[in-house]
Amino acid sequence: MDVLGSSVLTEDGIIDGYVCIEEGVVASIEEGVPPQRPVAAGLVVPPLVNAHTHCADAGLKIPQGLTIEELVTPPNGLKHMYLRALGENDLIKNMTGYAETSRSNGIGTFIDFREGGEKGCIALRKACPEAVILGRPLSKEYDQKEVSRILKVADGIGLSSISDVDHAYIEKVADQTREQRKIFSIHASERVREDIDFILSLDPAFVVHMVEATDSDLLKCAEAEVPIVVCVRSNRYFKKTPPLKRMSECGVDIAMGTDNAMLCSPDMRAEANAFKEVLLSQGGSAEDILSQMITNGRKILYPNNKIHVSAGMTAELTVFPLAGPHDGILSSRDPVFRYKPKKRR
């Protein structure tokens, strides 16, 4: 039997206790002091979900001061020109390195808005089989066959924004994605406020950014039970700040993503620290910071019985070292421990 932790994230909250693992499965969660030396001490949680990434631009070195349009808006933002010029080997190298860093930071999977059409999705599947891939068609006109090819490889579709693409095109892509029971998502109100009624009519699994959203927009997301993934560190590059306090007050489920690899490392502790700093500066409370960092991203992908650590689940777990109380995982910079079940011989 292996033992993990000094505290555990359970369905009932964080308890002071430990996880017992037998034959690759969480056998039980116990309160109190472990009966033997744990494999790793700290806060035991399921592997994190980095809820929004663009991993392929990891090799791009960017100057300061570019606008959103100059850097990331398709088709001629600097990032897109870089990706088009990148050979397949370098593309996969960028993705593989990003995946390795993600794993070392306790991230079990990342939801990647994958540019490059079908080929971009195939490359990421090769580089990181556990990635959740939301592909993006290359054709400027709706092409049902192209979308079908992407969805054979990818887990869904992730589009740039309703400001960049014709609305009729977006509706057709969203309809086809949902018909195939795949994930549809889109950037929303990142550089300008966008029509939230149209966005929600697409029935997205989640939306990304909502930096320029009004309270009315946020309330509509909450009422529709559409989570918002925020990317505080990447927003900072563009001198933008997501309205985190207002999102919380409106009842939105907030998850975190690290966005473009060229801007931010896949480090959820760093993202949560930036999130906390902004939220407190807006007069908000950080009491839900661990839910926003850990559980809300998992809610996007997994059923309720896989959101927290629970008996009977496969023992693929992350252990965060603690520097004080439970939210001390944010102040500790010690390495994260990833527990994976031993393969049976």
TrEMBL record:
- Transmembrane annotation, as ranges: none
* SUPFAM superfamilies registered for this protein in UniProt: Metallo-dependent hydrolases (SSF51556)
- Kind of enzyme, top EC level? hydrolase
Q: Name the Enzyme Commission number(s) assigned to this protein.
A: 3.5.4.28, 3.5.4.31
Database matches in InterPro entries: Amidohydro-rel, Metal_Hydrolase, MTA/SAH_deaminase
Q: Which UniProt keywords apply?
A: Hydrolase
Q: Name one GO molecular function term.
A: S-adenosylhomocysteine deaminase activity
- Tell me the ranges covered by the Amidohydrolase-related domain, including all copies: 44-301
Descriptive protein name: MtaD1 protein
- Protein's organism: Candidatus Methanoplasma termitum
Give the organism's phylogenetic lineage.
Archaea, Methanobacteriati, Thermoplasmatota, Thermoplasmata, Methanomassiliicoccales
The gene for this chain is mtaD1
